[in-house]
Every structure is written in C-alpha cells, then in structure tokens.
C-alpha cells in the first residue's frame, strides 16, 4: 500500500530535512495503522471467543404431570409384582399390635422425654395425655395404617390411593418415578409425601414432610411426638393373595436416637366398603373422648 506524504509536512519542513520529516510521518502513520489493525484483530478474536463460549439456553423444565393424567398412565412400565387394589385391615393378633410403641432400650431426646413421662403418668391415673385424635386432628403416619378401620386401596401404574375408614384420611404413594418435592416448596401433611419404587417383588416407600405438631407416634399410649423431621421407610411384601406385610424403619432425630423398626401384617377384607366419615364440631362436643375430664391437655 503506497504512502502519500501529508502536504503540511512539506510546507513546514526545510528542504534539507524534508526526506527525514516524510520518513518520520510515514512511521507515525504506520504505527497508527498497525495499532488499529491489532485492536480490530483483538476485538474480532474476543467476539468470536464470546460467540463460541456463550452457552446455549437451558431447556425448559418439564411441566409436572398428574398421576392420573392419561399420558402418564399410558407410559410403558414393567408390570407391578403385585396389586393392592382392594380393602385391607390391620390383622392384629400376637406380635402384631396396632401401636407403634418404642422398641426395647429406646432413648428419647430431653424434649420428647417430657411428653413421654407425662403420658405414662396420665395412663397410671386413668387419663389420656393430649388426645389430639379425639379432637379431630388426623392420626397421620404411621398410626393411620393400623387403626381398627379398614383401608380401601386403588393401585394404578402411577400411584396407590389409600382411603381410610377412619376420618376418610387419604394417603397417596406415587409410583411414576417422581422425586420428593423440594423442602421449601412442599405442603407438609400428616401422612407425609410418599414416593414408592419397586425392588424385585418388594415395594419400597419413602415418606417425608410431616407438619411437626399435633402428631404422635403412639396416641393415647406412649405419647411420643412426631416432628417435621420424621422419616419413614416401608417395605411392602405379599405373603399370599389375602395378606401383605410391611416392615417399617423410622428415624426422628428431634425425638429419639437411632432407628425404630416394626413389622405389621394386613388382611384382605372382601365383605366391607368404605363409607363417608366426618369429624364435625357439633358431634365432637358430645364425644366422651373430647369432653371427659380424664383427657389431659
């Protein structure tokens, strides 16, 4: 590229120094040109680097799908090892009591020990300590499973719906592969949030997210509270066509140390149905359990 000298250089420089002045001007022009070229190259490189490094937009999260959505129900899945559809009742009998009394050698936290001691004292005196169920508070897990009322169960590929004859309490075990709801989004409930999965011929159910108030492990018995950190793992197994068994493993670090384990059996009841049950204030006022002076608050 040819360099055209600046006329102002010729006009100001002495004739003897004109060649040197023109050379210096050419160098200045060349320097400016090189600087501009380098700057443009750097900008271009940076732009290309930015363009290449810019991450693509993350895909939008999938919308939640109801367990009863036709598309969810229609998804291909392995056949379940067993079907709990039917009406079931805790079997009772030796070694299969309805209570979830603490195991031998149990150790409570100081806060839970206060409730336990008060419950023991009330029983010795013929009373009942904090009969919240009698006040229409839900039984909650695990007690709702072993009340002396039957439970209607409807099993679908995506969930098992359980409706108890006691207060029509509903429990849902999701089987569609979903994860637990984030702790800061979940709506806590007395039956918790239950997520199930199949391990061979066993249904493993993980239950979290309890409210942490008016909830007891052994209502009217040992009077041990259940906190919001209660964690229950169940393992359902069919013994035969008319009986299933559940192994329970429970932890609640706010109320006791270690794991508590129980096993309960349930029998099919083909001669009963579930009817509507309501716990209403105008009826509740006349229940001895809620008005007796033996009920200790």
What does this structure look like?
The chain is of the alpha+beta class. It has two domains: 36 residues; 218 residues, no CATH class. A nine-stranded mixed barrel has the order 1-3-4-5-6-7-8-9-10. It has a two-stranded parallel ribbon with strand order 2-11. A hairpin with a 2-residue loop joins β8 and β9. It is globular.
Tag the structure with descriptive keywords:
single chain; 297 residues; alpha+beta; nine-stranded mixed β-barrel; two-stranded parallel ribbon; 6 helices; 23% strand; globular
Ordered list of secondary-structure elements with their pairings:
Layout (H helix, E strand, L loop, with lengths): L6 H6 L5 H36 L16 H4 L12 E5 L19 H15 L3 E2 L21 E5 L3 E6 L5 E5 L18 E7 L2 E7 L22 E10 L2 E9 L8 E9 L12 H4 L3 H4 L3 E2 L1
Parallel strand pairs: 2-11, 5-6
Antiparallel strand pairs: 1-3, 1-10, 3-4, 4-5, 6-7, 7-8, 8-9, 9-10
């Amino acid at each position: 590229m040819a360099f055209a000298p600046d006329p102002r250089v010729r006009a100001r420089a002495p004739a003897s120094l004109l060649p040197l002045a023109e050379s210096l001007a050419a160098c200045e022009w060349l320097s400016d040109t090189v600087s501009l070229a380098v700057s443009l190259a750097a900008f271009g490189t940076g732009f290309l680097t930015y363009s290449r490094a810019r991450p693509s937009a993350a895909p939008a999260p999938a919308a939640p799908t109801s367990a009863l959505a036709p598309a969810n129900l229609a998804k291909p899945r392995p056949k379940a090892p067993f079907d709990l559809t039917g009406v079931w009742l805790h079997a009772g009998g030796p070694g299969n009591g309805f209570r979830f009394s603490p195991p031998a050698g149990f150790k409570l936290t100081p806060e839970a020990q206060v409730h336990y001691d008060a419950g023991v004292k009330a029983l010795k005196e013929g009373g009942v300590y904090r009969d919240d169920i009698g006040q229409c508070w839900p039984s909650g897990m695990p007690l709702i499973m072993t009340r002396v009322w039957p439970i209607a169960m409807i099993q679908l590929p995506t969930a098992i719906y359980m409706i108890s004859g006691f207060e029509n309490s509903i429990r849902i075990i999701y089987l569609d592969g979903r994860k637990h709801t984030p702790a800061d989004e979940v709506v806590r409930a007395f039956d918790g949030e239950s997520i199930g999965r199949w391990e061979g011929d066993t249904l493993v159910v993980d239950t979290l997210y309890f409210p942490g108030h008016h909830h007891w492990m052994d209502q009217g018995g040992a009077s041990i509270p259940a906190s919001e950190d209660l964690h229950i793992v169940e393992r359902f197994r069919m013994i035969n066509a008319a009986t299933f068994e559940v192994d329970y493993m429970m932890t609640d670090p706010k109320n006791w140390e270690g794991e508590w384990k129980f096993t309960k059996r349930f029998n099919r009841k083909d001669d009963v149905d579930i009817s509507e049950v309501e716990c209403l204030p105008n009826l509740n006022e006349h229940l001895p359990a809620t008005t007796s002076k033996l009920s200790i608050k």
